[in-house]
Design brief:
The complex is a heterodimer of chains A (298) and B (611). By secondary structure, chain A is of the alpha/beta class. Chain A folds into two domains: 173 residues, Rossmann fold; 95 residues, P-loop containing nucleotide triphosphate hydrolases (Rossmann fold), CATH 3.40.50. Chain A has twelve helices and ten strands. In chain A, the strands form two sheets. Chain A has a six-stranded mixed sheet with strand order 6-7-8-3-9-10, sandwiched between helices. Chain B is mainly alpha-helical. Chain B folds into two domains: 282 residues, ABC transporter involved in vitamin B12 uptake, BtuC (Orthogonal Bundle); 211 residues, no CATH class. Chain B is built from 24 helices and six strands. In chain B, the strands form three sheets. Chain B has a two-stranded antiparallel sheet. Classes of the chains: A alpha/beta (298), B mainly alpha (611). At the A-B interface, helix 2, helix 3 and helix 4 of A face helix 18, helix 19, helix 20 and helix 21 of B.
Chain lengths: 298, 611
């Protein structure tokens, strides 16, 4: 059985089909990347998988269980952890507290199913700091520091600094560390290298490769194709809400539809010429230029 | 049957006339919300100033009514521009809760200034119109009714023509629709903002003048009710929707008029608050919008400035407690001790505010409601059930925690400024229920003859006894809160303050942790209310008002959000300083308002910093 099953999922905003009948599957241990031009529906799909948004149609199953009727806070308990496209660290919390929050759904107090017992337990633990709660906190803290240590000296010296004082790249690292402390069965990363320079990107690639080597299942949205091609077992290409190609990186890379829709840097001139006759080519050209600017900047 | 029809039609006329005035207030609020995305709490104060300007014109200078109208419109427009320029323009890049709090500060200052100029007592407002009643189809209509209707229709048509056909009107609508795009197209959005405030304030002032004439009286406290009635009308019609605001105003007037006819006059103010909360929670886009519009909401729900707390080492805390302990021996001045006792009890309320607002990020302006519940619960447990004070006080705290959380629960889905408004309304509803539930609460009479606090036979009568008792309670509350916010629970609370969506993605059940925050806060505030009630020996629905709630929030902002020591420092500063510098006591609300304005503008992280 597949770990994640997306079944004919559709989501529209004001009549625009952001995600249109998308289906795909992921197995445990796989690393899958979703690529596609801006506005292809990648982040919308991510939001649907993580419960931030609800599909209009279709089903999303995780470990055999349908997710779409669960409240958003239940997703973490199932083992889904994500990072956000534009970064959502807790600005006024320290680096360590940011990461520790990732373990929220692992703490024993939060495992209590009855709402009132859960709250009573939180209150009791918060007031009296019993030794079991302190031990749990210490163990999580050690684990958090071990995860942060994997980023070398990037974050360890800044454990007690507030997250708002971090660089953009360091905030991304904090987000990833926070997601890892959940011990996710599926890690969803939304553009983890956005805003990173080539050296930092290479460092992130090495980090993700080490995660993959340890068997972590990863679903990745990424614009930097070299990273995608090196890391992924499988690549899913989206355009205008649909999956237009899917397969091993080298297969996808040579797929003519993908070249046309996405890898068309060298064909941009032709596309421009085509756009004089065909209006639909316009957004494609726009997204390609956007893509090129993005690559040149980073 | 005929008399019923007559009453009904009279109530309808009545409701439409009052509704017309609400519509005036609401249109101004809706314009300001639409253009500036801002909730203007000073609007009612401008309304009140309008009433006083009209009163001065007509009673001091005997000017004709038409001149009074022009004078009111001009002076209020000027005040509107001044408010925009000096209180709000500097905050244009701050989170939306900052300008909201600034307008509260402004309203404190205007209200107190008017009180100082004209005394706090009501003045009779002459009706310059001939007292003439017309019979139209079996309905009695007076001249003032017709005047209000006429002014209302004329103002609506003028405003419509202005927005529809003039360049400035276009600029205003463009700015309301998309501020950035308007700016790009060369619209001077700051000038548009100022103009919007001028128009809104002029309309508000005229409404004040009309209300003064209609009820034949003006008084300084008419401002708060006006803000809230106007705001309820705006919410009914859909935030920022100008025609909706007119309909909302008329509808609110009718509901009140029929409601008063059915339930009685003391219920008048309850309807607006209940409507306000119900609409905010269940139809946040108003009654008249078919498709839900996305509310413009910031991602963080409170007024949290970036920054780190000023370090407070243990020896400093110990020294402060030591000073507080020996103070009655060093300075055995009963007056000073009484003031500090008040500061300790209000400090508990400030702690409770800093828990929900500073730590958990849910801006609360309803904390006095929890105090009122605690005070009444303790009084009733003692008087009706014969509980001793030690038990009734603790019981009251639990009742406050339970009832308070249940009352706020429907508002948990609201964020940012909306939770602030909802909690303010909840505080008012508590007092309105106390006023009207006579069989339980003795209604407007209040409950007298409460025995002073006693603790296992120790009667606290002398000032230093109350001082120590409240100091100990404050220290216990602070200790409890310190343990909680330093634990993983505190981390979880802070995470929902910083970013609810990210917290939720990591499994934080928002409702449960908000319940816990409000529960603990209402427990502490309820305890403070119970002790305060017994200390005063008399409580009524006017003992714990929204002013106390706003004061508690001001203390917290002054001290630093989420900062426990900051809350207590803020409480001492704002309670004790105006009393110690005796000259300031008469100007205390001026001091509070100015403090709020200055801190938000120049030190948003507060004296001791956000924690």
């Amino acid at each position: 059985m597949a770990l994640l099953e997306i079944q004919r999922v559709t989501r529209a905003f004001d009549g625009v089909l952001a995600v249109n009948e998308v289906s795909f599957q992921m197995d445990e241990g796989e690393t899958v990347s979703i690529i596609g031009p801006n506005g292809a529906g990648k982040t919308t799909l991510f939001n649907l998988i993580t419960g931030l948004d609800r599909p209009d149609q279709g089903d999303i199953r995780f470990n055999g269980e349908s997710l779409i009727d669960l409240p958003p806070h239940e997703y973490a308990r199932r083992g889904l952890a994500r990072t956000f496209q534009h970064g959502r660290v807790f600005g006024n919390l320290s680096v360590l507290d940011n990461v520790l929050l990732g373990a929220h759904s692992r703490r024993r107090a939060t495992q209590v199913r009855s709402p009132w017992l859960h709250l009573a337990r939180e209150l009791f633990d918060g007031l009296f700091w019993p030794s079991r709660a302190r031990q749990e906190e210490q163990a999580l803290r050690a684990e958090a520091e071990a995860i942060l240590a994997q980023f070398g000296e990037r974050l360890l010296p800044r454990l007690h600094q507030p997250a708002y004082s971090l660089s953009y790249a360091n905030r991304r690292r904090v987000e990833i560390a926070r997601a890892l402390l959940l011990r996710p069965r599926l890690l969803l990363l939304d553009e983890p290298t956005a805003g990173m320079n080539p050296a930092e990107t290479a460092e992130m690639l090495a980090f993700l490769e080490s995660l993959k080597a340890r068997g972590q299942t990863i679903l990745l949205i990424e614009h930097k194709l070299s990273l995608v091609m090196k890391l992924s077992d499988r690549v899913v290409v989206m355009d205008e809400g649909r999956i237009i190609a899917e397969g091993a990186p080298e297969v996808v890379r040579s797929d003519p539809r993908v070249i046309e829709a996405y890898l068309g840097h060298r064909h941009a001139g032709q596309a421009l010429a085509a756009s004089a006759e065909d209006d639909t080519a316009q957004p494609l050209v726009a997204s390609l230029t956007d893509e090129r600017i993005r690559e040149e900047m980073t | 049957m005929e008399s019923f029809v007559r009453t009904f039609s009279d109530q309808t006329i009545n409701g439409l006339v009052i509704g017309n005035i609400y519509a005036f207030i609401a249109v101004g609020l809706a314009l300001i919300f639409g253009v500036g995305n801002l909730i203007n709490f000073a609007h009612g104060s401008v309304f009140m100033v309008g009433a006083y300007v009209g009163w001065v014109c007509m009673t001091w200078w005997n000017l004709p009514l038409a001149v009074a109208f022009v004078a009111v419109a001009l002076i209020c427009a000027l005040i509107g521009v001044i408010i925009e320029r000096f209180a709000l323009y500097p905050l244009r890049n701050a989170p939306p809760i900052a300008p909201l709090l600034a307008t509260i500060g402004v309203s404190f200052m205007i209200d107190q200034a008017v009180q100082l100029l004209f005394s706090r007592n009501p003045h009779a407002f002459p009706n310059p119109l001939i007292e003439h009643r017309f019979q139209i189809g079996g309905v009695t209509v007076s001249a003032i009714d017709l005047l209000i209707a006429g002014v209302g229709v004329a103002a609506a048509l003028t405003l419509y023509a202005f927005l529809r056909f003039t360049r400035w009107g276009w600029a205003l609508r463009a700015t309301a629709q998309d501020r950035e795009a308007a700016l790009q197209m060369g619209v001077n959005v700051n000038a548009v903002n100022r103009m919007t405030f001028a128009i809104a304030a002029a309309l508000g002032g005229i409404a004040g003048l009309l209300v003064g004439m209609y009820f034949n009286t003006v008084y300084p406290t008419m401002s708060f009710q006006a803000t809230f009635k106007g705001f309820a009308a705006v919410v009914l019609g859909g935030l920022g929707n100008v025609p909706g605001a007119v309909l909302g105003g008329l509808l609110l007037g009718l509901i009140e008029s029929y409601g008063v006819a059915i339930f009685g006059a003391t219920y008048r103010n309850l309807f607006a608050f209940v409507i306000l909360i119900a609409v905010l929670v269940w139809r946040p886009n108003g009654l008249f919008s078919l498709k839900p519009r996305v509310m413009q909401e910031p991602l963080t729900g409170t007024f949290i400035a970036k920054g780190r707390p000023v370090p407070t080492p243990g020896w400093l805390i110990a020294t402060l407690i030591g000073v507080a302990l020996i103070l009655p021996i060093l300075v055995p001045n009963p007056y000073l001790l009484q003031i500090l006792t008040n500061a300790w009890l209000l400090g508990m309320v400030a702690l409770s505010v800093t828990l929900v607002t500073g730590t958990a990020g849910q801006t609360s302006l309803g904390q006095a409601g929890f105090m009122a519940i605690g005070a009444y619960a303790s009084a009733l447990l003692m008087l009706r059930l014969g509980w001793p004070f030690e038990l009734s006080m603790v019981g009251a705290a639990f009742i406050s925690a339970t009832l308070g959380t249940l009352l706020v629960f429907p508002a948990f889905r609201l964020r940012a400024v909306y939770i602030a408004i909802a909690t303010l309304a909840i505080g008012e509803i508590v007092n309105q229920v106390i006023l009207n539930w006579e069989s339980l609460t003795n209604g407007a009479m209040g409950i007298a003859g409460l025995t002073p606090p006693s603790f296992f036979g120790w009667q606290m009568i002398r000032p230093h006894e109350m001082y120590y008792f409240s100091l100990v309670l404050l220290c216990i509350a602070a200790l409890v809160q310190w343990r909680l916010v330093r634990s993983p629970l505190g981390r979880t609370w802070r995470s929902l303050r910083e970013d609810e969506i990210a917290a939720q993605a990591f499994g934080v059940n928002l409702n449960r942790y908000k319940t816990l925050a409000f529960g603990v806060a209402a427990w502490i505030a309820g305890l403070s209310g119970a002790v305060t009630g017994h200390m005063y020996t008399y409580i009524s629905h006017e003992t714990f008002t929204n002013t106390t709630s706003i004061l508690a929030l001001t203390m917290v902002i002054l001290g630093g959000m989420g900062n426990l020591l900051g809350a207590i420092v803020g409480a001492v500063a704002l309670t004790a300083l105006p009393e110690i510098f005796r000259g300031l006591a008469d100007y205390r609300y001026l001091v509070y308002g100015l403090t709020l304005l200055l801190v938000i503008r120049f030190r948003p992280q507060g004296l001791l910093g956000t924690d």
